[in-house]
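Page 37, top half.
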Amino acid sequence: MTARFLVLCLLLLCGLASAAPPRSLRFEQLSVQEGLPQESVLAIAQDRQGFIWFGTQGGLARYDGYRTVIYQHALNDPHSLSQNWVRVLHVDPAGRLWVGTDNGLDLFDPLTQRFRHFRPQEPAQRGNGNRHVRAIVDDGAGGLWLGTADGLQRFDPATGRFTIFHHAPDDPRSLAHDQVNALARDAAGRLWIGTPAGVDLLAPGAAGMARFSVTGPNGARAVAVQSLLADRDGTLWVGTHAGLEHWRPAVPAAAPRRERLPDNAGLPAGAVMNLYQDAEGTVWAGMRNDGLFRWHPQTRRFIGYRHELGDPHSLADNYVSALFHDRVGTFWVGTWFNGVSRVDLSSGGFARLVKNPDQPGSLSDNRVRAIVDAGEGRLWVGNDHGLSLYDPTTGQARLYRLPQAGNGSSDANVTGLWRTPGGTLWVGSRAGVRTFEPATGHFGPLLLSRGNPELDTVRYVFGDRAGMIWVSSKAGLYRIDPAGGAMRVFRHDPGNPASLADDSVRPVLEDRRGNLWVGTFNGLGLLDRRTGRFRHFQHDQRDPGSLSHNEVHYLHEDAQGTLWVGTASGLNRMQHTARGIAFRRYTRQEGLADDAIAAILPDRQGKLWLSTNSGLASLDPATDQVRNYSGADGTIEGAYFDGSAFAAPDGTLYFGGFNGITAFDPARVRPNGIAPVVAITDFQIFNQPVRPGAARPDGDVILQRAIEATRALTLDHRDSVFSLEFAALHFAWPQNNRFAYQLEGFDGDWVSTGAGKRFATYTNLDPGHYVFRVKAANKDGVWGEPTELAITILPPVWKTWWFRSLALVLLLGGAFGVYRARMRVLRDRHLRLEQQVSLRTAEVEMKNRLLMEQKRELEQRDERLRHAARRAEDATRQKSEFLANMSHEMRTPLAGVIGMLGFALRDRSLQPVTREQIERGQANAQSLLSIINDLLDFSKIEAGKLTVEKIDFALAATVENVASLFEEQAAAQGVDFRIDYARDLPHFVIGDPTRLRQVLVNLVGNAFKFTQRGHVTLRVARAGGEEAGCTEAGCTRIRFTVEDTGIGIPPTELPRLFEKFEQADATTTRRYGGTGLGLAISRQLVDLMDGEIVAHSTPGAGSVFSFTVPLCDGIAPALVPQAARAPHTHRLKVLCAEDFPTNQIIIRMMLEDMGHGVDIVGNGALAVAACAQTRYDLILMDGRMPEMDGPTATRAIRAGGPAGAPVCDRHLMIVALTANASEEDRSRYLAAGMDDFLTKPIDEDALHLQLARAIERQLARGVVLDPLPALLPQRPAAAQPSVAELDAMFGIAAGQPMAGPPGGSADDAANALRLRLRDAFVADLPARLGELHAALAAADADAAGRLFHGMKGSAAYLREMELHALCAELERAADRALWPAIRLKLPRLHAMLERLLAPADGGRSA
């Protein structure tokens, strides 16, 4: 027998050694601040609906998880609580709530929210102690047993009668003491009564009571009984002022077997105020000033829970006055001084191992940085105070402080631990690493210490299977051989990619294959211990299969050999694929509440448990299901330390953090699976609560009973805005409950909401029947059944069926009466109408005729208006055509002038004076061309599209340039030209010099045009008076004045002087010429420059035109040196598509002078064919050519050419050539596929730039080009081709006489060029005339326009201006198909051509 007992004891001790620590309780508090009427919670109960009720010294409170409803005594309300001191709450089997107060027994009616009062009737001399209700139990027959301060009472609710039992001194079977503190009724129906004199027993059917006295621990004196509990096992728990006893009742008449709990049972010797058994059978004891205790039957010990200073989730107070376990698993603890505490017993399963200031020998510090096994169920714990040997079951710890460091400072912080198979501990700290022998309690010498805590701090310690110790720090990775003391260091070498990735090293792991994995702050490394080389695995933001983050915190290998990597941003699962190693990521997107992983531990079911910065999480690798746990589930608060984790042999997991250790058996961690019940807790109309029984001003009662008990509700149409508040009666974590509600008949789907918005508001619902449904889920996502409330909204009187029926009858009756009266009136009116019809018929016919006449007049007026609109449109179109054609016609002769002047300037033998005159002529021609371009922009001015520049320029130089243009004209006319330029003007200003020069040229030109004698004066000065104001700082308003002594202007003509196409009178145009646009353009340009222009004139005396413009102070513009144009680097092969020989010659000469090869074709079809034979680098494409024009040829080349003859290069550069400078032409050519645009006359610089772009483009495409020699052979001094070369260009046979005298000078060379151009034109003329006659005969407007266009261009190069003007008129007529006008002008054209042929023929015959 003794041996068996010893074996049982040994097994029990082994079980204790390997058992997980007891679950700790994390309490949430409810105090006066959260709505309690008073701090002392004396009783707790849950009604049938699920509300929690609290009895306090200040009244009764109902709690729904979010707010409390207070019920207190009111003197003027007989249905209020009878007294505010509530000691007892009891819910009977019928679901009725009984309230025991210090003024009797109350019954709460949930339908009316009222109380009924029941008081015993006894002689007055006994006082009111019989109304102080201290305990209530059921009697098993529908009645109640009441324990009061003056006797025992049996109450029959059916009759309202009391049966009272008192102490009788002469009756030993009477009550031992009149003060009843506690009642308990066991399964056998026996009533146990606790009094200050002990315990009394009233058996069923017994005539008297049996008395049992209770003595203290030493048996010297009797002690009062404060609490009783008859548990489900038949044990009677007796709580006294001196402790707790177990009683095992026997037969009804026999005395029970009594046992006092020993001193080592964990319960202090104090007053046990409450005893309670929860739904799981656990017995709880609440004590006065010693806290709460939980009975552990396996160890036959109590586990205590006390209030701890600084821990808001400990028990609210140590004086426990009430205990209750509700139906959803929440355990409630009422305290005397600080409200009520609650904890969810149906979920969780975590234990918090923390420092307890009230318990000597507990953990010394809560910052647990390392945990390893110590054997026998104990742990080695490293924290900021040192190394502790800790027993999780008892909470006892022994502290070993680390020796002082070499510099004399204390090295208290333990940052890493490793236990060797022999039991030796390697202890890492901020000063390095040392060994510790548990047997002797001595520390070894300090290793890896440099005196720099930043680098000496050990972050992780690991031992491999070979016995080597690996130490991680911020200074690299160390391998220590404990046997020989050898040490090897691995550090990051920027020059060696196979070195350690970073010196900050954290976890080290040796997997089952012997691979050593090292986590750093720059990724994961795999160390080849033979070579010392690392293979790196790092984060790549472009590769989703890479590590989620480079900062590695923990490494774990699971039972299947899979490596898991915890990082600062996500958990990573290593996977071996065909492409190598990849990682599967688990982050917040996969459900983790926090993805900063601190440690990873497995449980026995194959799940992984993760500690993070904000809690714990479990991951099922098979399903990827994640569940998060936080302090609300019973874990420690806050973050966990990296690597601080340990899995015990019995399956218990330990995670160390900033605030202690979380310990748990994963098999015992469970969610709360009880679904919440939803109650509708408030009903409001227009944000005003509606109380049961409350009536409207008209006497209607909306709520007949409380909204919590209402199942159907009828509202009036006036109740257009109403709200329903609801609560989930689940108290595990009310703030995390979820809700969904729906008003059937209105809401199409469920509306989801959280605990912060527990109400639904509806406005202006249509009359009808609705059903409001609301359901809730608890903190673990378990949804309950919906609660329903039927709502009927009555229609207003005018929408009821009877009102509408009555209204319909009245409406029909009234309509019938009106109909009868109307019919009588109609009959009378019909007679009168018949009499008036004949008269009105004649009147109507007359009006019809009048209307027909008016209609014809309106149609004629409309026709005139349409005709006027067409004329206006024609005028607008003609104006645009006029501007475009005038620009084109003026540009063509200017092209010849500019071109010839350019050729003349090539003569290096020119005299300086001659060169200056030619350059001035060329500048004037360019200026005139610029003005012509501005004239083309007149339409832009009208449309508001023309803008002015704001650049720095020299004001004096601009004025001088304008003056130089008119010096020769002034001398020729004998007019004195004066310039008056003020000295105080700024040297440089900001504005548009081109537009300013254009206005000045216009005004000065007009002055010379209308002045035959006298003088013309140009004055420039600052504006004075009011005109001097300027909106910008540093700006000056400058007035430009042009004064002449010409013919003057009549005063009546001045107002319209600046209008379009206006001159003083018609004779001015005939005598002096002009279009009348000059002053209009000037006025609009001045307006664009924010200026003003005015004119004053006296007929016969002269005119004064002045304008002022604001010009801000500027700086000297940067001088760009006139460098010679750089020659091209490569030679291009250019194709020119141009149908007129004169243009062909000019282009050929320009290209060959620049060193490039050129082929000439006469139309677009030949250009496409040439591209099929030769690979060209650039095409210069004329717009209008016979057979195929430029845009059509471009599109054909871009398309690849015809199928039988594809082009060699469809992507070569194509540049348009045309004399038409409009934006429409440019857009049309670019849309056809051309790359750029050159206008005639061709500017050599612009052509040079296009050739340079073509070279760059071909080289970029990889096309091989011949290099151009650095220095090309120069032509003779005249820079002109010889006569033989010109003959070759123009196709003239060698030896053919030249139409003019030969000469060798530069002028002779220019004359030779012009004569050769004439000869080429004459040679080509018969063929062109033949084509022209054929086009006219066929009425081919396009061909005719093209031929006239070509003749116009040739005439410009030949300086035949009259012929040029006539060809321009004929081109416009051909474009508009005006054949009569063309035939009318053809004889004049033939006459001019004959005059042109005559000198040529004569020259040749000579």
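Page 37, bottom half:
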Amino acid sequence: MSERQSPGIRISIDRGGTFTDCIGMVPVPVSKEYPTGRREIVIKLLSVDPQNYPDAPREGIRRILEIATGKPHPRDKPVDTSLIESIRMGTTVATNALLERKGEKCALLITKGFKDLLLIGNQARPKIFDLSIHKPDVLYQRVVEIDERVILIGDESNPPAELTNDDANIIRGISGEYVKILQKPDTNKIKNDLQSLYADGFRSIAICLMHSYTFPDHEHLLGSIASTIGFTHISLSSAIMPMIKIVPRGTSSTADAYLTPCIRKYVDGFVSGFDENLEKNARIEFMQSDGGLVPVNKFSGFKAILSGPAGGVVGFASTSYSESERNPVIGFDMGGTSTDVSRYDGLFEHVFETTTAGITIQAPQLDINTVAAGGGSQLFFRNGLFAVGPESAGAHPGPTCYRKDGPLTITDANLILGRLNIDYFPKIFGPSEDQPLDVEATRQQFQLLAEEINAFVGNDKKMTLDEIAYGFTQVANEAMCRPIRALTEAKGYDTSKHILACFGGAGGQHACAIAQNLGIKKILIHRYSSILSAYGLALADVVHEVQEPCSKTFSDDTLPYLMERINALCDTCTKELNSQGFNESHIQHHIYLNLRYQGTDFGMMTLKPKDSWDFIKTFTEQYKQEFGFHFPDRKILVDDIRIRGIGKGFEIEKHDIFDEIKNTSPIPVSEDQCDNTVSVYFENGRMETPLYCLEKLKIGNKIPGPAMIIDSTSTILVAPKCNALIMTSHVFITVEGDIKSNVTTESDPIQLSIFGHRFMSIAEQMGNSLQKTAISTNIKERLDFSCALFGADGGLVANAPHIPVHLGSLSHAVKYQLEYYNGKLEEGDVVMTNHPQAGGSHLPDITIITPVFHEGEIIFFVASRGHHADIGGISPGSMPPHSKELFEEGAAIKSFKLVSKGNFDIDGLTNVLLHEPARYPKCAGSRCLRDNIADIKAQVAANHKGISLVKVLIEEYGLDVVQAYMMHIRRNAELSVRNLLKKVYHRLEQNILKAVDYMDDGTPIELQITINEKDGSAIFDFTGTGPEVFANTNAPPSVTFSAIIYCLRCLVDEDIPLNQGCLTPINIRIPPNSLLNPSDQAAVVGGNVLTSQRLVDVILKAFQACAASQGDCNNLTFGKDEKIVDGKKIDGWGYYETIAGGSGAGETWDGQSGVHVHMTNTRITDPEIIERRLDHAVVLREFSLRKGSGGKGLHRGGDGVIRDLEFREPLQVSLLTERRVFHPYGLRGGKDGAKGLNLWIRKGNVKGRDRVLNLGSKNSFKVGTGDRVVICTPGGGGWGTPTDKPNDDMDIDEAITRFL
């Protein structure tokens, strides 16, 4: 801690990947030159330059000291700290170590049965159309399973019966939940395991045990033993983030173990270059991802991921937000490889679970959305579309103009357009690093691209280089607008009511265009915009956070307990900040409760109101703002108590920029202030544009657009119809007048790309709305839903990449309703359907369809489909394995007008979901009607969001243009598929492709594809497929359409628009009354989740694309019916999950293990959530990879998984699976993957022996207390003839050796 008595130099540093920005604030006497009594020295230098200095931040400090004192500070001597008051730093050291996987060697200690849990994660694949599935590597090098186990058995509102037994193994956890210790750790074995790790060179470990968020004792025991052995870094998951969900808590603790030692090494190296008085003279603080500073000794890796960007957020928030105006601000930070956007409205917005470089971090982080579009984003022309990124040129080789033979990028486009001026750009390029930007090389590369584009377009009007370069900037701008809309429109805010605060090296060149696209009228660009992250560090507060779990219902009765815990945690924060030198007058506490409605999983961190304890009012207002409704009849639960302690240290005096603007009389800029005139290209052509040097402009100068304003580190482009006002600390730009679109109905490749973004953005925002507003696990957590936009003809326009099995079938559902109502739909109507003959997939998937009207005519449709946990039928979960008729699977609705002219028909909805299904023998109505209604309302709200966005698009461009581009986009998708089929013909040198595979009951799925190589069309003929079965694996035709469109998109392997055009070149022939085209009342629940997967295997086999994946969704449902006890109704419940397996290998890749494949990509519920939520009725004993189940080959197939569940009470269980008879095939000599295996391990009888029963692929049964169900999912097939590897233990199927 600093012992300084007088003010010293305050230094703030942002160490980025390429550049390090430093700002030193030197105290000086107040004068006209320095009215604040502060001289600011700015240094910008390369982050890595070993020939000149060993450490960039220390070099920056050295240079600041030389300038401040006017005396030399030699590099070969320790830096003198006598004048330094503080050093604040944001760094990308942790981020880079994570991205490059260069962290500390570490091991993971985890509860037995979960050694592969973090590898499996949530089982979803990152890119649903990527056949060569790539999942990020885990961060640890070794796993040690700890034979310990605790389970949840109740809470204070529902205390366990075992409490009366005075059992010492039953303990009340921190959250108020009761846990039961089933197995205590064996300390001797743990010591041996840890000593073995230590002997092998491990010094850093992460410890993550089941339910340690509420019962951390076992983690503390392991940590204590590890400490005595000598481990230098021990990360306890219960200490770093005590929140429920073992997977993100585990990945966070491993990230901490992996990254914090790197941080420590970096800090030690940094500090070593200073004199011995550094700690005595100066405070050293680092920026965390949450926007708060911490002392250097408390800086940890997992909280450092956004250390650099966080400084920028603090910077724009502190300098651009006006307390008097209270207009929310959007931060727009455009760098070389990506653009970060964020929002500030007086409080920092935090999220608590984010994924960076494939690693999920559970920690408070600023809500920063990143898009892969920056100055270095590469430019492509693909299938008639302009594409920008996500590939980046990076620092090396960089853009074409950097003289290193790099690719064309956005920087090159701006150079061609005249928006970068080489005379004012640093001459640091070429072999000697003394050359300017290479305009000629950029022009030559654009000329080659222009030839390709014009040859493709083929019309009389050739596109010029200017038009092409401008087109790429437009596409990039639209890509950067999408995350801004997600931060605003998707959360219920009006984007146009925001201020745009631009910073970063490239932000000023795009600021006006971004604002015009979004309807924003005010732009602020700080004079330190290119180093705002460093400046933000100078403005930041020191923060110390504490958090603990809770399991209370918020009420008047529980408020005293909550207040007691809040006060205790506030005291903890205060003591810590006191120890850092802050007295009580400089400490503030922000008090949060993590609240959620009962029956939902979406919590909201709710800030305590200033002068009351009325969290409920704040929570409901916040909920309604984001989602448009709330649940007044539901209890509100408290999941966590969080205190954010803030230490207010030295503050830079902040002035309100809008107060200055109000009090400034604009001074027209004079001609003699113009430094140059340059030619710049805008939408309507080139314009002579005055260029001004910022340092030569006066406060109050008003500069009309077009204009360029340049300083030493950045370029600001003031577009036509914009005006810039020079302020003390900012350039303030106003966007005046409406920016009218000049787009016509004629197809244009630039606008084609832009409309592709806009249409997809509508579907994505609908999906965001649905996920947030739904209450069921299936939609909110498993993400088993899809949203889409359709033309007036019912043809698909855009489907967000949610669940592939919905891709083609949703269009069938819309077309059915269009024909059914035959012009009788009215504005305000909403239709509900789920019947397979009406375009449905299976009955739990309920589709909500809303027409979009314009001047009395239907112009579009929006639709959302979500999987509901139960809709009646013969078994809980509505996924019966032995259904023979459709009515056994629940409510079957061809068409129901849910909303008529704005009136919601709740009685009719109750009838079709609750009463109608119960009319059939042995069938019940929905077992969770209240949740059904809530989710259906969420789907209606998502559709409403889509309608509003469609209308915004029409208002912006006009109906004729929007509808014209709907058709252009379809034609573009059609072209992509035709080109694909032509390539397939040339690759395989044949135009007839055949494949057949068999369902477990022996039913064949047979396909012949006949390709017309001249026009790129094809016939998909399923003649030879077996007849409809008296079971439930029948699949309606819409499922076949979905499978085909999915496979075509995978094979194209480019980011093409996904719409009806993909199927235009395809003639699909399905024989009637077959497995793929069954009769009206055929059972279909398995067709959607099983047959669809086998369809994909057959199609990909015909194309020889890859070996078979697991060919299954491994559907597991369990639950219980409602019952009447003492005249009181006790609700039943149903739980449903699909389980990962192995993916098939391909010509150049190994299959992925433990991942969902092809037609689904739903997530799996976290182990701790599943054990807490379901009345504590289930214990997950194991979730691991099934070693050896992937097929051998030159490239191996991926392994399946083992999922072992133990039941603590009698429940009805259903299994609906495939590939238990026929193996997933290998290709080109690759071996088959292992078949799946379903086992029921029945608790021992009188002789004490368990019975192990093979359940086959489909079964329904009632488990007793202590029974287990073990699901061993199939592996993927191998590709290519395997090389001989003797004694390869990967060839031994773990499931067979362990269970049989």
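Margin note: The chain is about 30% helix and 25% strand.
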